[in-house]
Amino acid sequence: MELKLLSYNIHKGFNWNRRRTTIQEIKETIYNLKIDIAFIQECVGEPQLKSLNQFEFLADSIWSEFNDSQNAAYSGHYHGNAILSKFPIIKDTNIDISTNRFETRKLLHCEIQIPGTKQIIHAVCLHLSLWKIGRQKQYQAILNYILKKIPPESPLIIAGDFNDWNKIASFHLEEILGVKEVFRHTQGCYAKTFPSFLPFLSLDRIYIRHFHVNEVHLDLHSEVKHLSDHLPLATTIKFL
Q1: Which of 87, 89, 125, 214 has the fewest CB atoms within 10 Å, i.e. is most exposed?
Q2: 233 forms bridges with which residues in the sheet?
Q3: Which domains does the chain have, with CATH numbers?
Q4: 236 and 214 in contact (C-beta within 8 Å)?
Q5: In a 3-state reduction of DSSP, which class is residue 213?
Q6: How far apart are CA 178 and CA 169, in angstroms?
Q7: What is the pLDDT of residues 186-207, one digit of tens each?
Q8: CA–CA separation, 170 vs 174, rounded Å?
Q9: Does this model's pTM top 0.85?
Q10: Other C-beta atoms lying within 10 Å of the C-beta of residue 102
Q11: Which of 45, 44, 37 has its CA nearest to residue 12?
Q12: Could you count the other beta carbons within 10 Å of the beta carbon of residue 136?
């Protein structure tokens, strides 16, 4: 069975310079990629007004299952991580991994049931600190959580905006968790995703365990470059 995954920091539904809203175009882009499980960062919500919940707007009739984490709150709104899935989410957990009072960061963990099987996928969506010292602490928090809560034999996907400009996240995650980053594994290097209009930093990642990578995709079309300040990452994988 093949699964197509997406990781995308949508910049709260604004283009890279915040001059226009792009959430409708982002939705169409994700639909056109025919994604099974989407890992979204900087997704805006409003607890009392569902019409402002971007994760529900993106999910619409395509992904029947979705969950989000309320990271940064401001003026009655919040933005955070979201996981959208075509398959049932049977359990979800939000863990606070913040390291300073200026950045609220959470780990969103969803257990996804593949219909017609007993197979459970553990999906983890992250948006890590802008600061190196904060990320160092968050790597350890991520390791502690996954080692405690997710069995080593379980299929695992970790995706999101790692803000890992110095490219050290893999040294913390790969050996201990047995994961591999899909672009580095297949292309020999991480995908450059930021800033979207002229990408030179590799901030976004998709790590997998107990899967084979069939294909990776970095969308460099000019229209996509202006939807967010990050480019979307996609990959097609299958169970080992």
Answers
A1: 214
A2: 7, 218
A3: 2-239 (3.60.10.10)
A4: yes
A5: strand
A6: 13
A7: 999 999 999 999 999 999 999 9
A8: 5
A9: yes
A10: 11
A11: 44
A12: 13
Contact 146, 177 (CB under 8 A): yes
Number of C-beta neighbours around residue 118 at 10 A: 6
DSSP 87-150: S-EEEEEEEE---BTTB--EEEEEEEEPTTS--EEEEEEEE--SSHHHHHHHHHHHHHHHHHHS
- Residue 32 tokens read as 């056109």
Largest CA distance in the chain: 46
Q: How far apart are CA 211 and CA 157, in angstroms?
A: 9
Q: What is the model's pLDDT at position 14?
A: 84
Q: How far apart are the C-alpha atoms of 112 and 123, rounded to whole Å?
A: 7
Residue 48 is classified by DSSP as T
pLDDT tens-digit map of 86-100: 999 999 999 999 999
Answer yes or no: are the C-beta atoms of 10 and 42 closer than 8 Å. Answer: yes
Q: Which of 132, 124, 216, 140 is nearest to 173 (CA)?
A: 140
What's the CA gap between 203 and 169, in Å, rounded?
Answer: 10
Compute the chain's Rg from CA coordinates. 16
Contacts of 188 (CB under 8 A, 6+ apart): none
The one-letter amino acid at 153: E
